[in-house]
Specification:
With 558 residues, the chain is an alpha/beta fold. The chain has 22 helices and 13 strands. The strands form 3 sheets. A 6-stranded mixed β-sheet has the order 1-2-13-12-10-11, with helices on both faces. The chain has a 5-stranded parallel β-sheet with strand order 6-5-7-8-9, with helices on both faces. Helix 15 packs parallel to helix 20. The radius of gyration is 26 Å and the shape is globular. The chain binds 6-O-phosphono-beta-D-fructofuranose. The site of 6-O-phosphono-beta-D-fructofuranose has 14 residues, from loops.
Protein backbone atom coordinates (compact mmCIF):
# COMPACT_ATOMS: atom_id res chain seq x y z
CA UNK A 1 0.00 0.00 0.00
CA UNK A 2 1.36 3.47 -0.86
CA UNK A 3 1.31 6.32 1.64
CA UNK A 4 0.03 8.98 -0.75
CA UNK A 5 -1.93 11.83 0.80
CA UNK A 6 -5.69 11.39 0.28
CA UNK A 7 -7.36 13.99 -1.96
CA UNK A 8 -8.96 16.86 -0.04
CA UNK A 9 -12.22 18.77 -0.30
CA UNK A 10 -13.49 21.77 1.64
CA UNK A 11 -15.04 19.27 4.08
CA UNK A 12 -11.65 17.99 5.18
CA UNK A 13 -11.01 21.05 7.32
CA UNK A 14 -14.37 20.74 9.10
CA UNK A 15 -14.32 19.43 12.67
CA UNK A 16 -15.65 15.92 13.28
CA UNK A 17 -19.43 15.96 13.77
CA UNK A 18 -19.41 15.48 17.52
CA UNK A 19 -16.97 18.37 17.98
CA UNK A 20 -19.11 20.90 16.13
CA UNK A 21 -20.67 23.30 18.66
CA UNK A 22 -24.10 23.08 17.03
CA UNK A 23 -24.11 19.30 17.31
CA UNK A 24 -23.30 19.49 21.00
CA UNK A 25 -25.98 22.14 21.47
CA UNK A 26 -28.47 19.96 19.61
CA UNK A 27 -27.66 17.05 21.85
CA UNK A 28 -28.59 19.07 24.91
CA UNK A 29 -31.55 20.70 23.25
CA UNK A 30 -33.00 17.39 22.02
CA UNK A 31 -32.82 15.89 25.49
CA UNK A 32 -35.49 18.47 26.38
CA UNK A 33 -37.43 18.46 23.13
CA UNK A 34 -37.81 14.71 23.29
CA UNK A 35 -40.27 15.12 26.13
CA UNK A 36 -42.49 17.60 24.29
CA UNK A 37 -45.61 16.32 22.60
CA UNK A 38 -46.82 17.64 19.27
CA UNK A 39 -50.22 18.13 20.93
CA UNK A 40 -48.61 20.58 23.31
CA UNK A 41 -46.50 22.29 20.64
CA UNK A 42 -49.55 22.91 18.45
CA UNK A 43 -51.66 24.03 21.42
CA UNK A 44 -49.04 26.57 22.44
CA UNK A 45 -48.60 27.99 18.96
CA UNK A 46 -51.74 28.42 16.85
CA UNK A 47 -49.59 29.56 13.92
CA UNK A 48 -47.34 26.54 14.00
CA UNK A 49 -48.78 24.95 10.86
CA UNK A 50 -47.99 28.03 8.78
CA UNK A 51 -44.74 28.85 10.51
CA UNK A 52 -43.22 25.47 9.72
CA UNK A 53 -44.47 25.31 6.16
CA UNK A 54 -42.39 26.29 3.18
CA UNK A 55 -43.83 26.94 -0.24
CA UNK A 56 -41.32 27.11 -3.05
CA UNK A 57 -40.97 26.15 -6.71
CA UNK A 58 -44.35 24.45 -6.85
CA UNK A 59 -43.99 22.38 -3.68
CA UNK A 60 -45.84 22.91 -0.42
CA UNK A 61 -43.69 21.43 2.31
CA UNK A 62 -45.35 21.17 5.71
CA UNK A 63 -42.81 20.15 8.34
CA UNK A 64 -44.81 21.38 11.33
CA UNK A 65 -45.62 17.85 12.49
CA UNK A 66 -42.00 17.25 13.42
CA UNK A 67 -40.72 17.17 16.99
CA UNK A 68 -39.05 20.52 16.66
CA UNK A 69 -39.21 24.05 18.01
CA UNK A 70 -37.84 27.21 16.41
CA UNK A 71 -34.73 26.60 18.45
CA UNK A 72 -34.31 23.14 16.93
CA UNK A 73 -34.40 24.63 13.46
CA UNK A 74 -32.00 27.40 14.44
CA UNK A 75 -29.51 24.86 15.73
CA UNK A 76 -29.90 22.58 12.72
CA UNK A 77 -29.22 25.53 10.43
CA UNK A 78 -26.16 26.36 12.49
CA UNK A 79 -25.06 22.77 12.15
CA UNK A 80 -25.39 23.06 8.36
CA UNK A 81 -23.18 26.16 8.37
CA UNK A 82 -20.63 24.59 10.70
CA UNK A 83 -20.59 21.47 8.52
CA UNK A 84 -19.47 23.43 5.45
CA UNK A 85 -22.68 22.73 3.54
CA UNK A 86 -22.56 26.03 1.66
CA UNK A 87 -18.99 25.44 0.50
CA UNK A 88 -19.73 21.84 -0.39
CA UNK A 89 -22.73 22.81 -2.54
CA UNK A 90 -20.57 25.36 -4.33
CA UNK A 91 -17.85 22.76 -4.78
CA UNK A 92 -20.29 20.34 -6.42
CA UNK A 93 -21.61 22.94 -8.86
CA UNK A 94 -18.04 24.09 -9.59
CA UNK A 95 -17.10 20.59 -10.71
CA UNK A 96 -14.64 19.92 -7.88
CA UNK A 97 -13.79 16.28 -7.35
CA UNK A 98 -16.00 15.83 -4.32
CA UNK A 99 -16.34 12.11 -5.01
CA UNK A 100 -13.04 11.75 -3.26
CA UNK A 101 -12.54 8.00 -3.28
CA UNK A 102 -13.13 7.75 -7.01
CA UNK A 103 -11.54 11.13 -7.72
CA UNK A 104 -14.49 12.32 -9.76
CA UNK A 105 -16.58 15.41 -9.94
CA UNK A 106 -20.29 15.04 -9.24
CA UNK A 107 -22.18 16.85 -11.92
CA UNK A 108 -25.61 15.33 -12.38
CA UNK A 109 -26.79 18.94 -12.08
CA UNK A 110 -25.20 19.52 -15.50
CA UNK A 111 -27.53 16.94 -17.05
CA UNK A 112 -30.42 19.36 -16.62
CA UNK A 113 -28.65 22.66 -17.10
CA UNK A 114 -30.13 24.86 -19.83
CA UNK A 115 -28.09 25.36 -23.00
CA UNK A 116 -26.86 28.81 -22.05
CA UNK A 117 -25.30 27.72 -18.75
CA UNK A 118 -21.70 26.72 -18.28
CA UNK A 119 -20.59 23.95 -15.95
CA UNK A 120 -16.99 22.80 -15.97
CA UNK A 121 -15.32 19.47 -15.42
CA UNK A 122 -11.52 19.64 -15.60
CA UNK A 123 -11.76 22.96 -17.41
CA UNK A 124 -14.19 21.70 -20.06
CA UNK A 125 -17.71 23.11 -20.28
CA UNK A 126 -19.85 19.95 -20.26
CA UNK A 127 -23.19 21.59 -21.06
CA UNK A 128 -22.78 21.53 -24.87
CA UNK A 129 -21.95 17.78 -24.72
CA UNK A 130 -25.01 17.16 -22.57
CA UNK A 131 -27.25 18.91 -25.08
CA UNK A 132 -25.57 17.12 -27.97
CA UNK A 133 -26.60 13.78 -26.46
CA UNK A 134 -30.09 15.06 -25.61
CA UNK A 135 -30.56 16.13 -29.25
CA UNK A 136 -29.38 12.75 -30.48
CA UNK A 137 -31.74 10.99 -28.06
CA UNK A 138 -34.59 13.22 -29.21
CA UNK A 139 -34.02 12.36 -32.85
CA UNK A 140 -33.96 8.66 -32.08
CA UNK A 141 -36.99 8.85 -29.77
CA UNK A 142 -39.01 10.55 -32.51
CA UNK A 143 -37.98 7.88 -35.01
CA UNK A 144 -39.27 5.18 -32.69
CA UNK A 145 -42.43 7.06 -31.69
CA UNK A 146 -43.28 7.92 -35.28
CA UNK A 147 -42.46 4.47 -36.65
CA UNK A 148 -39.63 5.64 -38.92
CA UNK A 149 -37.14 3.33 -37.21
CA UNK A 150 -37.76 -0.15 -38.58
CA UNK A 151 -36.64 -3.48 -37.21
CA UNK A 152 -34.48 -5.80 -39.30
CA UNK A 153 -37.50 -7.39 -40.98
CA UNK A 154 -39.01 -3.99 -41.79
CA UNK A 155 -41.48 -3.89 -38.89
CA UNK A 156 -42.26 -0.90 -36.77
CA UNK A 157 -40.94 -1.07 -33.16
CA UNK A 158 -43.80 -1.68 -30.76
CA UNK A 159 -41.91 -2.94 -27.71
CA UNK A 160 -39.06 -1.36 -25.81
CA UNK A 161 -37.14 -3.45 -23.31
CA UNK A 162 -34.70 -1.64 -21.05
CA UNK A 163 -31.93 -3.93 -19.83
CA UNK A 164 -29.97 -2.56 -16.88
CA UNK A 165 -29.68 -2.80 -13.12
CA UNK A 166 -29.38 -0.40 -10.18
CA UNK A 167 -29.31 3.14 -11.48
CA UNK A 168 -29.55 1.85 -15.04
CA UNK A 169 -32.91 0.26 -14.23
CA UNK A 170 -34.59 1.82 -11.20
CA UNK A 171 -34.66 5.37 -12.58
CA UNK A 172 -36.05 4.47 -16.02
CA UNK A 173 -38.50 1.99 -14.52
CA UNK A 174 -39.72 4.38 -11.83
CA UNK A 175 -40.01 7.25 -14.34
CA UNK A 176 -41.94 5.12 -16.82
CA UNK A 177 -44.42 4.15 -14.12
CA UNK A 178 -44.60 7.70 -12.76
CA UNK A 179 -45.22 9.25 -16.16
CA UNK A 180 -47.28 6.51 -17.76
CA UNK A 181 -50.18 8.92 -18.00
CA UNK A 182 -48.12 11.00 -20.47
CA UNK A 183 -46.72 8.04 -22.40
CA UNK A 184 -47.35 6.88 -25.93
CA UNK A 185 -49.71 4.00 -25.29
CA UNK A 186 -49.14 1.98 -28.45
CA UNK A 187 -45.60 1.14 -27.37
CA UNK A 188 -45.07 -1.48 -24.66
CA UNK A 189 -42.29 -0.81 -22.16
CA UNK A 190 -40.65 -3.47 -20.03
CA UNK A 191 -37.64 -3.50 -17.73
CA UNK A 192 -35.31 -6.44 -17.26
CA UNK A 193 -32.78 -6.21 -14.45
CA UNK A 194 -32.47 -9.44 -12.50
CA UNK A 195 -29.97 -12.09 -13.53
CA UNK A 196 -32.72 -14.57 -12.62
CA UNK A 197 -33.74 -15.83 -16.07
CA UNK A 198 -37.37 -15.44 -15.10
CA UNK A 199 -37.09 -11.70 -15.51
CA UNK A 200 -36.08 -11.97 -19.15
CA UNK A 201 -38.38 -14.90 -19.91
CA UNK A 202 -41.46 -13.16 -18.56
CA UNK A 203 -40.60 -9.83 -20.22
CA UNK A 204 -40.33 -11.41 -23.66
CA UNK A 205 -42.70 -14.37 -23.61
CA UNK A 206 -45.52 -12.64 -25.46
CA UNK A 207 -43.44 -10.32 -27.63
CA UNK A 208 -42.47 -10.51 -31.23
CA UNK A 209 -38.72 -10.02 -31.70
CA UNK A 210 -39.31 -8.30 -35.05
CA UNK A 211 -41.05 -5.46 -33.24
CA UNK A 212 -38.80 -5.31 -30.17
CA UNK A 213 -35.95 -2.93 -29.43
CA UNK A 214 -33.56 -3.46 -26.51
CA UNK A 215 -31.93 -0.52 -24.81
CA UNK A 216 -28.91 -1.85 -22.97
CA UNK A 217 -28.20 0.61 -20.19
CA UNK A 218 -24.95 0.28 -18.33
CA UNK A 219 -22.52 2.96 -17.34
CA UNK A 220 -19.65 0.47 -17.34
CA UNK A 221 -21.05 -2.07 -19.80
CA UNK A 222 -19.46 -4.77 -17.69
CA UNK A 223 -22.11 -5.42 -15.02
CA UNK A 224 -22.69 -9.17 -14.74
CA UNK A 225 -26.49 -9.07 -14.65
CA UNK A 226 -26.85 -6.61 -17.50
CA UNK A 227 -24.33 -8.31 -19.74
CA UNK A 228 -25.90 -11.71 -19.11
CA UNK A 229 -29.35 -10.38 -19.96
CA UNK A 230 -28.04 -8.48 -22.98
CA UNK A 231 -26.40 -11.61 -24.40
CA UNK A 232 -29.56 -13.63 -23.84
CA UNK A 233 -31.53 -10.90 -25.62
CA UNK A 234 -29.04 -10.98 -28.47
CA UNK A 235 -29.52 -14.75 -28.87
CA UNK A 236 -33.29 -14.29 -28.70
CA UNK A 237 -33.22 -11.70 -31.50
CA UNK A 238 -30.74 -13.55 -33.69
CA UNK A 239 -32.64 -16.81 -33.32
CA UNK A 240 -35.95 -15.17 -34.21
CA UNK A 241 -34.64 -13.10 -37.09
CA UNK A 242 -32.08 -15.60 -38.33
CA UNK A 243 -29.24 -13.14 -38.85
CA UNK A 244 -26.50 -11.53 -36.73
CA UNK A 245 -27.04 -8.34 -38.69
CA UNK A 246 -30.40 -7.92 -36.92
CA UNK A 247 -28.52 -6.86 -33.76
CA UNK A 248 -27.79 -3.41 -35.16
CA UNK A 249 -31.52 -2.70 -35.72
CA UNK A 250 -32.75 -4.15 -32.42
CA UNK A 251 -30.16 -2.94 -29.92
CA UNK A 252 -29.05 0.48 -28.80
CA UNK A 253 -27.00 1.34 -25.73
CA UNK A 254 -26.63 4.02 -23.09
CA UNK A 255 -23.13 3.83 -21.70
CA UNK A 256 -19.79 5.51 -21.09
CA UNK A 257 -17.87 2.55 -22.55
CA UNK A 258 -17.85 2.85 -26.37
CA UNK A 259 -15.32 0.07 -27.02
CA UNK A 260 -17.31 -2.61 -25.19
CA UNK A 261 -20.59 -1.43 -26.67
CA UNK A 262 -19.14 -1.82 -30.17
CA UNK A 263 -17.70 -5.21 -29.31
CA UNK A 264 -21.21 -6.32 -28.41
CA UNK A 265 -22.31 -5.46 -31.96
CA UNK A 266 -24.05 -2.17 -31.30
CA UNK A 267 -23.22 0.49 -33.82
CA UNK A 268 -21.48 3.45 -32.10
CA UNK A 269 -23.98 5.66 -33.94
CA UNK A 270 -26.67 4.01 -31.83
CA UNK A 271 -24.88 4.50 -28.56
CA UNK A 272 -25.96 7.36 -26.33
CA UNK A 273 -23.10 8.48 -24.15
CA UNK A 274 -22.70 9.94 -20.74
CA UNK A 275 -19.78 10.65 -18.46
CA UNK A 276 -17.96 9.36 -15.40
CA UNK A 277 -19.13 12.42 -13.45
CA UNK A 278 -22.68 11.00 -13.49
CA UNK A 279 -23.20 8.44 -10.72
CA UNK A 280 -25.37 5.45 -11.63
CA UNK A 281 -28.08 6.42 -9.13
CA UNK A 282 -28.03 9.99 -10.43
CA UNK A 283 -28.30 9.04 -14.10
CA UNK A 284 -32.00 8.77 -14.97
CA UNK A 285 -31.92 12.18 -16.65
CA UNK A 286 -28.89 11.25 -18.80
CA UNK A 287 -28.91 8.87 -21.77
CA UNK A 288 -30.04 6.25 -19.26
CA UNK A 289 -33.42 7.97 -19.55
CA UNK A 290 -33.78 7.06 -23.22
CA UNK A 291 -36.74 4.78 -22.53
CA UNK A 292 -38.38 7.62 -20.58
CA UNK A 293 -37.87 9.95 -23.51
CA UNK A 294 -39.35 7.44 -25.95
CA UNK A 295 -42.31 6.97 -23.65
CA UNK A 296 -43.19 10.62 -23.04
CA UNK A 297 -41.49 12.31 -25.99
CA UNK A 298 -38.55 14.71 -26.05
CA UNK A 299 -40.56 17.79 -25.18
CA UNK A 300 -41.97 16.36 -21.97
CA UNK A 301 -38.57 14.85 -21.15
CA UNK A 302 -37.14 18.37 -21.33
CA UNK A 303 -39.92 19.54 -19.03
CA UNK A 304 -38.81 16.90 -16.56
CA UNK A 305 -35.24 18.21 -16.83
CA UNK A 306 -36.55 21.72 -16.22
CA UNK A 307 -38.16 20.45 -13.02
CA UNK A 308 -34.83 19.02 -11.85
CA UNK A 309 -33.08 22.26 -12.76
CA UNK A 310 -35.55 24.42 -10.85
CA UNK A 311 -34.76 22.42 -7.72
CA UNK A 312 -31.01 22.57 -8.44
CA UNK A 313 -31.16 26.35 -8.58
CA UNK A 314 -33.30 26.50 -5.45
CA UNK A 315 -30.79 24.27 -3.62
CA UNK A 316 -27.83 26.30 -4.87
CA UNK A 317 -29.21 29.74 -4.12
CA UNK A 318 -31.97 29.71 -1.48
CA UNK A 319 -30.94 30.66 2.07
CA UNK A 320 -30.85 27.54 4.17
CA UNK A 321 -33.89 28.49 6.26
CA UNK A 322 -35.99 28.58 3.08
CA UNK A 323 -34.24 25.73 1.30
CA UNK A 324 -36.40 22.63 0.85
CA UNK A 325 -33.73 19.94 0.46
CA UNK A 326 -31.60 21.46 3.20
CA UNK A 327 -34.50 21.43 5.67
CA UNK A 328 -35.54 17.95 4.65
CA UNK A 329 -31.98 16.64 4.99
CA UNK A 330 -31.48 18.32 8.36
CA UNK A 331 -34.69 16.79 9.72
CA UNK A 332 -33.47 13.37 8.62
CA UNK A 333 -30.18 14.01 10.44
CA UNK A 334 -32.10 15.08 13.56
CA UNK A 335 -34.13 11.88 13.90
CA UNK A 336 -31.18 9.71 13.03
CA UNK A 337 -28.88 11.31 15.57
CA UNK A 338 -31.15 12.24 18.46
CA UNK A 339 -34.31 10.13 18.26
CA UNK A 340 -32.79 6.72 17.46
CA UNK A 341 -34.87 6.53 14.29
CA UNK A 342 -33.43 3.86 12.03
CA UNK A 343 -35.72 4.29 9.06
CA UNK A 344 -37.72 6.80 7.03
CA UNK A 345 -40.99 5.81 5.36
CA UNK A 346 -41.81 7.43 2.02
CA UNK A 347 -45.53 7.25 1.39
CA UNK A 348 -46.71 8.65 -1.94
CA UNK A 349 -50.47 8.96 -2.24
CA UNK A 350 -50.29 8.59 -5.99
CA UNK A 351 -50.51 5.21 -7.66
CA UNK A 352 -48.20 6.31 -10.49
CA UNK A 353 -45.42 6.72 -7.91
CA UNK A 354 -45.61 3.05 -6.95
CA UNK A 355 -41.90 2.49 -7.68
CA UNK A 356 -40.73 5.77 -6.18
CA UNK A 357 -39.77 4.26 -2.80
CA UNK A 358 -37.77 1.52 -4.57
CA UNK A 359 -35.97 4.16 -6.60
CA UNK A 360 -35.23 6.18 -3.47
CA UNK A 361 -33.75 3.14 -1.77
CA UNK A 362 -30.79 3.12 -4.13
CA UNK A 363 -30.51 6.89 -4.17
CA UNK A 364 -30.45 7.22 -0.40
CA UNK A 365 -28.87 4.00 0.80
CA UNK A 366 -26.17 3.51 -1.84
CA UNK A 367 -25.27 7.15 -1.25
CA UNK A 368 -25.25 7.39 2.52
CA UNK A 369 -24.86 3.80 3.70
CA UNK A 370 -21.24 4.44 4.75
CA UNK A 371 -19.40 4.13 8.05
CA UNK A 372 -16.12 5.77 7.10
CA UNK A 373 -15.61 9.54 6.85
CA UNK A 374 -13.85 11.36 4.03
CA UNK A 375 -10.82 11.42 6.32
CA UNK A 376 -10.87 7.62 6.45
CA UNK A 377 -11.93 7.25 10.08
CA UNK A 378 -14.85 5.25 11.43
CA UNK A 379 -17.84 7.41 12.29
CA UNK A 380 -18.97 7.52 15.91
CA UNK A 381 -22.54 8.45 14.99
CA UNK A 382 -25.35 7.04 12.88
CA UNK A 383 -25.33 7.68 9.11
CA UNK A 384 -27.86 6.90 6.38
CA UNK A 385 -31.26 5.67 7.54
CA UNK A 386 -33.15 2.89 5.81
CA UNK A 387 -35.66 4.30 3.33
CA UNK A 388 -38.72 2.27 2.50
CA UNK A 389 -42.37 2.69 1.63
CA UNK A 390 -45.36 1.91 -0.50
CA UNK A 391 -48.06 4.02 -2.05
CA UNK A 392 -51.04 5.02 0.07
CA UNK A 393 -53.64 4.00 0.78
CA UNK A 394 -52.39 0.41 0.36
CA UNK A 395 -49.79 0.70 3.10
CA UNK A 396 -52.47 1.76 5.58
CA UNK A 397 -53.86 -1.75 5.47
CA UNK A 398 -50.53 -3.39 6.01
CA UNK A 399 -47.63 -1.77 7.87
CA UNK A 400 -49.12 1.50 9.18
CA UNK A 401 -50.21 -0.34 12.34
CA UNK A 402 -46.55 -0.45 13.37
CA UNK A 403 -45.98 3.22 12.53
CA UNK A 404 -48.97 4.22 14.66
CA UNK A 405 -48.65 1.90 17.63
CA UNK A 406 -45.35 0.04 17.36
CA UNK A 407 -42.30 0.65 19.52
CA UNK A 408 -40.23 2.26 16.78
CA UNK A 409 -40.14 5.90 15.76
CA UNK A 410 -40.53 6.14 11.99
CA UNK A 411 -40.49 9.61 10.47
CA UNK A 412 -42.73 9.63 7.40
CA UNK A 413 -42.79 11.63 4.18
CA UNK A 414 -46.34 11.88 2.86
CA UNK A 415 -46.53 12.95 -0.79
CA UNK A 416 -49.80 14.03 -2.41
CA UNK A 417 -51.09 15.92 -5.43
CA UNK A 418 -53.99 18.34 -5.50
CA UNK A 419 -55.29 17.42 -8.95
CA UNK A 420 -56.05 13.85 -9.96
CA UNK A 421 -54.71 12.60 -13.27
CA UNK A 422 -57.60 10.18 -13.50
CA UNK A 423 -60.56 11.92 -11.88
CA UNK A 424 -63.14 9.27 -11.03
CA UNK A 425 -66.08 10.15 -8.83
CA UNK A 426 -64.82 11.17 -5.40
CA UNK A 427 -61.75 8.89 -5.43
CA UNK A 428 -59.32 11.76 -5.24
CA UNK A 429 -60.91 13.45 -2.25
CA UNK A 430 -60.93 10.09 -0.47
CA UNK A 431 -57.26 9.63 -1.31
CA UNK A 432 -56.23 13.06 -0.05
CA UNK A 433 -58.45 12.83 3.03
CA UNK A 434 -56.36 9.81 3.94
CA UNK A 435 -53.05 11.67 3.56
CA UNK A 436 -54.24 14.40 5.90
CA UNK A 437 -55.83 11.95 8.32
CA UNK A 438 -52.75 9.76 8.61
CA UNK A 439 -50.42 12.67 9.32
CA UNK A 440 -52.92 14.02 11.86
CA UNK A 441 -53.38 10.66 13.57
CA UNK A 442 -49.63 10.10 13.81
CA UNK A 443 -49.00 13.52 15.32
CA UNK A 444 -51.91 13.83 17.74
CA UNK A 445 -52.94 10.28 18.42
CA UNK A 446 -55.89 9.53 20.67
CA UNK A 447 -55.63 9.93 24.42
CA UNK A 448 -56.99 7.42 26.95
CA UNK A 449 -59.56 10.05 27.94
CA UNK A 450 -60.77 10.39 24.37
CA UNK A 451 -60.94 6.64 24.06
CA UNK A 452 -62.84 6.34 27.35
CA UNK A 453 -65.28 9.05 26.32
CA UNK A 454 -66.64 6.93 23.48
CA UNK A 455 -67.63 4.18 25.93
CA UNK A 456 -64.67 1.86 25.35
CA UNK A 457 -64.33 -0.46 28.39
CA UNK A 458 -61.30 0.24 30.55
CA UNK A 459 -59.56 -3.04 29.73
CA UNK A 460 -59.69 -2.29 25.99
CA UNK A 461 -58.68 1.37 26.25
CA UNK A 462 -54.87 0.85 26.19
CA UNK A 463 -55.18 -1.03 22.91
CA UNK A 464 -57.26 1.70 21.36
CA UNK A 465 -55.06 4.53 22.58
CA UNK A 466 -52.67 6.20 20.15
CA UNK A 467 -49.69 7.89 21.80
CA UNK A 468 -49.20 10.16 18.83
CA UNK A 469 -46.08 12.37 18.67
CA UNK A 470 -44.98 10.48 15.58
CA UNK A 471 -43.37 12.86 13.13
CA UNK A 472 -44.05 13.41 9.45
CA UNK A 473 -43.49 15.80 6.56
CA UNK A 474 -46.29 16.40 4.07
CA UNK A 475 -45.32 17.38 0.55
CA UNK A 476 -48.07 18.62 -1.74
CA UNK A 477 -47.78 19.57 -5.39
CA UNK A 478 -50.47 20.61 -7.79
CA UNK A 479 -50.33 17.67 -10.15
CA UNK A 480 -47.93 14.88 -11.06
CA UNK A 481 -46.32 16.12 -14.28
CA UNK A 482 -42.90 15.44 -15.81
CA UNK A 483 -41.77 18.74 -14.32
CA UNK A 484 -43.06 17.95 -10.83
CA UNK A 485 -41.42 14.54 -10.95
CA UNK A 486 -38.06 16.14 -11.78
CA UNK A 487 -38.47 18.61 -8.93
CA UNK A 488 -39.37 15.86 -6.49
CA UNK A 489 -36.45 13.61 -7.42
CA UNK A 490 -33.99 16.49 -7.17
CA UNK A 491 -35.46 17.32 -3.75
CA UNK A 492 -34.42 13.89 -2.50
CA UNK A 493 -31.06 13.99 -4.33
CA UNK A 494 -30.11 17.19 -2.58
CA UNK A 495 -31.52 16.06 0.75
CA UNK A 496 -29.18 13.07 0.46
CA UNK A 497 -26.34 15.49 -0.33
CA UNK A 498 -27.17 17.57 2.73
CA UNK A 499 -27.18 14.52 5.00
CA UNK A 500 -23.93 13.15 3.57
CA UNK A 501 -22.24 16.53 4.04
CA UNK A 502 -23.19 16.70 7.72
CA UNK A 503 -21.92 13.15 8.21
CA UNK A 504 -18.74 13.96 6.26
CA UNK A 505 -18.97 10.89 4.08
CA UNK A 506 -18.55 10.34 0.35
CA UNK A 507 -22.15 10.09 -0.87
CA UNK A 508 -21.03 9.33 -4.41
CA UNK A 509 -19.00 6.14 -4.23
CA UNK A 510 -20.35 2.60 -3.63
CA UNK A 511 -17.49 0.35 -2.53
CA UNK A 512 -19.89 -1.68 -0.42
CA UNK A 513 -21.29 -3.46 -3.46
CA UNK A 514 -17.89 -4.77 -4.56
CA UNK A 515 -17.09 -7.67 -2.23
CA UNK A 516 -20.24 -9.65 -3.00
CA UNK A 517 -19.55 -9.25 -6.73
CA UNK A 518 -15.98 -10.51 -6.36
CA UNK A 519 -17.02 -13.52 -4.28
CA UNK A 520 -19.79 -14.40 -6.74
CA UNK A 521 -17.23 -14.40 -9.57
CA UNK A 522 -15.16 -16.83 -7.55
CA UNK A 523 -18.10 -19.11 -6.82
CA UNK A 524 -19.53 -19.22 -10.37
CA UNK A 525 -16.94 -21.73 -11.68
CA UNK A 526 -17.29 -23.78 -8.49
CA UNK A 527 -20.92 -24.63 -9.07
CA UNK A 528 -21.83 -27.81 -10.88
CA UNK A 529 -19.62 -28.71 -13.80
CA UNK A 530 -21.74 -31.41 -15.50
CA UNK A 531 -18.82 -32.61 -17.57
CA UNK A 532 -16.96 -33.63 -14.40
CA UNK A 533 -17.60 -36.55 -12.05
CA UNK A 534 -18.52 -35.81 -8.47
CA UNK A 535 -15.02 -36.46 -7.24
CA UNK A 536 -13.54 -34.08 -9.80
CA UNK A 537 -15.68 -31.07 -9.01
CA UNK A 538 -13.51 -28.02 -8.14
CA UNK A 539 -12.30 -28.02 -4.52
CA UNK A 540 -14.04 -25.62 -2.15
CA UNK A 541 -12.00 -23.34 0.07
CA UNK A 542 -14.66 -21.18 1.69
CA UNK A 543 -15.85 -21.24 5.26
CA UNK A 544 -17.59 -24.39 6.29
CA UNK A 545 -21.12 -22.98 5.93
CA UNK A 546 -20.53 -21.68 2.39
CA UNK A 547 -18.85 -24.96 1.39
CA UNK A 548 -21.84 -26.93 2.68
CA UNK A 549 -24.31 -24.70 0.82
CA UNK A 550 -22.42 -25.11 -2.45
CA UNK A 551 -22.18 -28.88 -1.97
CA UNK A 552 -25.90 -29.10 -1.25
CA UNK A 553 -26.65 -27.06 -4.38
CA UNK A 554 -24.32 -29.24 -6.46
CA UNK A 555 -25.88 -32.46 -5.29
CA UNK A 556 -29.45 -31.37 -6.01
CA UNK A 557 -28.51 -29.65 -9.25
CA UNK A 558 -26.92 -32.76 -10.72
O1 LIG B 1 -24.47 -2.00 -7.75
C1 LIG B 1 -23.50 -1.06 -8.01
C2 LIG B 1 -23.73 -0.29 -9.26
O2 LIG B 1 -22.48 0.16 -9.65
C3 LIG B 1 -24.70 0.87 -9.12
O3 LIG B 1 -24.13 1.95 -8.52
C4 LIG B 1 -25.08 1.07 -10.54
O4 LIG B 1 -26.19 1.90 -10.67
C5 LIG B 1 -25.28 -0.35 -10.98
O5 LIG B 1 -24.28 -1.08 -10.31
C6 LIG B 1 -25.24 -0.59 -12.46
O6 LIG B 1 -24.00 -0.27 -13.00
P1 LIG B 1 -23.83 -0.09 -14.56
O7 LIG B 1 -24.69 1.01 -15.01
O8 LIG B 1 -22.38 0.19 -14.77
O9 LIG B 1 -24.24 -1.39 -15.22
Amino acid sequence: MTTQQPPRTSLHSIAPLRNRPAFKALEEHCAKVRNLHLRQLFAEDPERGERFTLEAIGLYFDYSKNRITSETIRLLLELAEQSGLRQHIDAMFAGEKINVTEQRSVLHVALRAPKDEQIFDDGVDVVPEVHGVLDKMAKFAEQIRGGAWKGYAGHRIRNIINIGIGGSDLGPMMAYEALKYYSQRDITFRFVSNVDGTDFAEATRDLNAEETLFIVCSKTFTTLETMTNAHTAREWVVKALGDEKAVARHFVAASTNTATVEKFGIDAANMFGFWDWVGGRYSMDSAIGLSTMIAIGPEQFREMLAGFHTMDEHFRTAPFEGNLPVLMGLLAVLYNAFFDAQTVAVLPYEQYLNRFPAYLQQLTMESNGKHVTLQGTRVDYQTGPIYWGEPGTNGQHSFYQLIHQGTKLIPCDFIGFVQALNPLGNHHDLLLANVFAQAEALAFGRTPEEVGADGTPEWLAPHRTFEGNRPSNTILAERLTPKTLGTLIALYEHSVFTQGTIWQIDSFDQWGVELGKVLAERIIPELVRPELDNADQPPLKHDNSTNALIRHYRSLRR
